[in-house]
Amino acid sequence: MLELDLLLVPFAREAFEALSLEDKLLYRDFLAEEDQDLWAWLMKRAEPSEARFHPMIDQILAHKVAST
User: Fold this and answer.
1) Which helix (DSSP H) or strand (DSSP E) does residue 4 occupy?
2) Domain range for residue 27?
3) DSSP state of 50
4) The domain spanning residue 41 has which CATH number?
5) What is the pLDDT of residue 53?
6) How many CB atoms are closer than 10 A to CB 68?
7) What's the total number of domains in the chain?
């Protein structure tokens, strides 16, 4: 999904290496979810299936704001 790429690729390129091991594993698990779910969560249209994804969503969105 192109829209997801616009958020996730810059985050992966620019922020992933600085994540803790725990957050890297969380990001991997996050990416395993369905694209339409990821998009809804990142657009704040729905709540993630697992509460543990909230911090990752916040980090991705904060990175987007900081890089614009």
Assistant:
1) helix 2-14
2) 2-67
3) S
4) 1.10.150.250
5) 98
6) 6
7) 1
How many angstroms separate the CA atoms of 52 and 13, rounded? 22
Place of tokens 């790429």: 5
pLDDT digits (tens, 9 = 90+) for 7-58: 999 999 999 999 999 999 999 999 999 999 999 999 999 999 999 999 999 9
Q: The pTM is what?
A: 0.92
Beta carbons of 62 and 19 less than 8 angstroms apart: no
Annotate 3-23 with b (16+ C-beta within 10 A) or e (fewer): eeeebbeebbeebeeebeeeb
The letter for the amino acid at 34 is E
Residue the block writes with tokens 């980090």: 59
* Pair of tokens at residue 7: 């958020």
